[in-house]
């Protein structure tokens, strides 16, 4: 029941978030606009312990494991060399990928990322997708920060995809001063957010997202793909 209430809350807030995000994400800077100084990079959350994290992943088809949803990494989880996993998104059919964060001992796991799509509409370099056409989607995880890139970059959706990302695997010392205190709680409750950038030479910007403190997660509707991070 609690899970259903959380999903209902996310779904009720996502349309507003999308309306704001789509305008910012799709238009980009005007070629004749005066270029503003590059904004400073946000404070990225780092994985706890300073060690390379480990993950397992599940490809899902209409809520279950499917033949066309497969990992780009060897069986057993995401490749620790590249931190990538992939699945086939099909226009007109639900597809998803869930990636779980493993404990340091490897015997427990918790959700890190869930990406769901139903309507990939346009692939850069290929054009429009017809109903039933598919595109291979790849998620690449940053091994140092809670940051991911979604490819193919610039993939557009008719009905937006949905990204849910958890920061539960981060060090609780959010400001990096070596102490867990009220300052970290303030950052989490007031400053922390989901950020994106269009390209590696672009600037990071915060996007509308629904935060659930109980899950330590953010959920956002995605009109297209780029790079995303939990930051403040």
Can you put this structure into words, describing what you see?
With 232 residues, the chain is an alpha+beta fold. It has one domain. The protein has two helices and 14 strands; from the N terminus they run αβββββββββαβββββ. Strands 1, 3, 4, 5, 6, 9, 12 and 13 form an eight-stranded antiparallel sheet that branches. The N terminus is likely disordered.
Summarize the structure.
With 232 residues, the chain is an alpha+beta fold. Helices cover 16% and strands 37% of the residues.
Tally of domains:
1
Annotation field: number of helices: 2
Number of strands: 14
Unreliable stretches: 1-34, 60-81
The outline comes out as globular
> What structural category do the secondary elements indicate?
alpha+beta
Strand percentage lies at 35-45%
User: What is the terminal-to-terminal distance?
Assistant: 31 Å
Radius of gyration: 18 Å
> What portion of residues is helical?
10-25%
The residue-averaged pLDDT reads 79
Order of helices and strands: HEEEEEEEEEHEEEEE
Major sheet? 8 strands, antiparallel
């Amino acid at each position: 029941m609690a899970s259903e209430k959380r999903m209902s809350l996310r779904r009720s807030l996502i349309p507003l978030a999308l309306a704001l995000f789509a305008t910012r994400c799709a238009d980009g800077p005007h070629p004749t606009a005066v270029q503003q100084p590059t904004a400073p990079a946000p404070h990225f959350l780092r994985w706890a312990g300073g060690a390379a994290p480990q993950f397992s992943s599940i490809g899902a088809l209409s809520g279950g494991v499917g033949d066309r949803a497969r990992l780009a990494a060897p069986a057993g989880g995401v490749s620790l060399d590249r931190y990538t996993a992939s699945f086939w998104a099909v226009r007109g059919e639900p597809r998803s990928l869930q990636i779980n964060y493993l404990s340091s001992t490897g015997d427990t796991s918790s959700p890190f990322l869930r990406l769901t799509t139903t309507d990939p509409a346009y692939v850069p370099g290929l054009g429009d997708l017809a109903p039933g056409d598919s595109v291979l989607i790849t998620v690449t995880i940053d091994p140092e920060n809670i940051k991911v890139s979604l490819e193919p970059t610039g993939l557009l959706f008719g009905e937006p995809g949905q990204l849910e990302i958890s920061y539960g695997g981060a060090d609780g010392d959010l400001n990096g001063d070596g102490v867990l205190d009220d300052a970290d709680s303030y950052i989490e409750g007031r400053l922390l957010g989901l950020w994106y950038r269009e390209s590696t030479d672009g600037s990071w910007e915060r996007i509308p997202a629904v935060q659930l403190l109980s899950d330590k997660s953010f959920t956002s509707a995605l009109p297209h793909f780029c790079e995303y991070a939990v930051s403040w």
